[in-house]
């Protein structure tokens, strides 16, 4: 009976780690969707392109091609930078050893 509490504690710790990492990854995905929605609502002319591709480099190229107001362009560039940072952080987190196990179990994909 001496080992049963140890196994329960170990299992509980693993479960808490799994839930914490899953929650962090899901928050990053939700933040990415929120930023895309902000970008889509900021400039309706980019709306079609935003739905087609969420690659920030393509969005910057499309933004440079469109002749829009400078204020809108600056806001859109700020949102696109946040998209890039969030994507890099999410992908880096999925590459690390214990986090990629949770990513595989919970079927998280790279952004």
Report on the architecture of this protein.
This protein has 111 residues and is mainly α. Helices cover 81% and strands 0% of the residues. It has 5 helices and no strands. The protein has helices at 4-42, 47-52, 56-65, 70-95, 97-105. Helix 3 packs antiparallel against helix 4 (70-95). The radius of gyration is 19 Å and the shape is rod-shaped. The protein starts with a helix and ends in a 6-residue tail after the last helix. The mean pLDDT is 86.
Instruction: Label the structural class.
Output: mainly alpha
What gross morphology would you assign?
rod-shaped
- Major β-sheet, in short? none
**Mean pLDDT reading:** 86
**Strand-and-helix sequence, N→C?**
HHHHH
Tell me the distance between the termini: 46 Å
Query: What is the helix tally?
Result: 5
What does the radius of gyration come to?
A: 19 Å
Give a short overview.
This protein is an all-alpha fold and 111 residues long. The chain is built from 5 helices and no strands. The protein has helices spanning 4-42, 47-52, 56-65, 70-95, 97-105.
Structural features:
mainly alpha; 0% strand; 111 residues; 5 helices
Give me the secondary-structure topology:
Elements: H1 4-42, H2 47-52, H3 56-65, H4 70-95, H5 97-105
């Amino acid at each position: 009976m001496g080992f049963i509490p140890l196994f329960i504690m170990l299992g509980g710790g693993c479960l808490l780690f799994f839930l914490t990492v899953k929650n962090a990854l899901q928050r990053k995905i939700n933040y990415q969707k929120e930023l895309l929605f902000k970008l889509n609502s900021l400039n309706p002319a980019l709306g079609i392109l935003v739905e087609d591709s969420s690659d920030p480099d393509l969005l910057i190229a499309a933004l440079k091609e469109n002749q829009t107001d400078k204020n809108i362009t600056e806001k859109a560039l700020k949102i696109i930078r946040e998209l890039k940072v969030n994507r890099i952080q999410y992908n880096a987190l999925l590459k690390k050893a214990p986090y990629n196990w949770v990513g595989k179990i919970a079927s998280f994909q790279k952004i």
